[in-house]
Write a structure and sequence with these properties.
This is ABC transporter ATP-binding protein. Keywords: ATP-binding, Nucleotide-binding, Transport. With 244 residues, the protein is an alpha/beta fold. It has helices at residues 47-54, 77-82, 100-110, 119-125, 141-154, 171-186, 198-204, 222-226, 229-242, and strands spanning 8-18, 21-32, 36-40, 62-67, 70-71, 85-87, 159-163, 190-194, 207-212, 215-220. The chain contains nine helices and ten strands. It has a six-stranded mixed sheet, with helices on both faces. It has a four-stranded antiparallel sheet with strand order 2-1-4-5, covered by helices on one side. A hairpin with a 2-residue loop joins strand 9 (207-212) and strand 10 (215-220). It is globular. The structure holds adenosine-5'-triphosphate and magnesium ion. The site of magnesium ion has 3 residues, from helix 1.
Length: 244
């Protein structure tokens, strides 16, 4: 049976096995259009696997992904991109032989209809303004994470999946990147964000889904999920919430 037509992304009964390992177990959730949705959970709970499925890099053992009501489950990554889906990688994948400027200009040309007209301005806002002529080998890990973000925003993707883009950033850099994401969200970009730092999740997300051991354990507002006893016990720990 087809799900109700949803504006945004709909994950329906997705299961992923890797040999004997059940990485995702019958997971269903919605990431609505014009929202910033969080996907959180402890290490190994299946978050990146879910991104790999949504963006077409792996095909699920069972289940379906719908974008604005269209079944996109079996499409290749470049076809997902044509549906407006863009992603960052938890381990950045820079083009070794291209400068920051060349990389983001290439990204902005990937989809001529949507590509950002001034990608260097996004780079400046993400803290890469004085590094436009550097090569990836000259960048810090933090800069490489920022470049991942800038690359996907430069394509003008309408639905953006971010896999721990705050990794390694200091509080003022997090604030910068938060503002950048919010500005794109205000202009109509939808986001699904994997993030460990609860402060960033609380600041950005309208709605959060929690994965525990490959199962969807809880969905709700950031406040609702951080008050859930199962989430507190299995993932956050009372102390983590106090310090979030
Ligand atoms: N290609 C693969 N082959 C085999 N096992 C895999 C593969 N990809 C992921 N896994 C396993 O699936 C489980 C979920 O991994 P995944 O990377 O999705 O977790 P995660 O929630 O993103 O974790 P983290 O917070 O550490 O990034 C882990 O046990 C992982 O080892
Ligand atoms: Mg991961």
């Amino acid at each position: 049976m087809l799900p109700e037509k949803t504006d945004g992304l709909r994950v329906e009964h997705v299961t992923q096995r890797f040999g004997g390992l059940l990485a995702l177990d019958d997971v269903s959730f919605t990431s609505e259009r014009n929202r910033i949705t969080g996907l959180i959970g402890p290490n190994g709970s299946g978050k990146t696997t879910m991104f790999n499925i949504i963006s077409g890099f792996i095909k699920p053992t069972a289940g379906h992904i719908y974008a604005n009501g269209d079944d996109i489950t079996r499409l290749a990554p470049h076809q997902m991109a044509a549906h407006g889906i863009g992603r960052t990688f938890q381990i950045p994948k820079p083009f070794a032989s291209m400068t920051v400027r060349q990389t983001i200009e290439l990204a902005s040309r990937a989809n001529p209809k949507t590509g950002h007209s001034d990608p260097a301005s996004i780079a400046r806002e993400a803290g890469l303004g004085d590094k436009l002529d550097l090569y990836p080998g000259e960048l810090t890990t933090t800069d490489l994470h920022s470049l991942e973000l800038v690359k996907v925003l430069a394509t003008g993707a309408s639905f953006v999946l971010l896999d721990e883009v705050f990794a390694g950033l200091n509080p003022s850099e997090i604030e910068h990147v938060t503002q950048l994401i919010r500005r794109f969200a205000d202009q109509g970009t939808s986001f699904l964000i994997i993030e460990h730092r609860m402060r960033a999740v609380m600041a950005l997300c309208d709605h959060v889904h929690v994965l525990l051991y490959g199962r969807l354990a809880k969905s709700g507002t950031p406040i609702e999920v951080t008050r859930d006893p199962e989430v507190i016990e299995a993932y956050l720990g009372a102390e983590a919430i106090e310090h979030a």
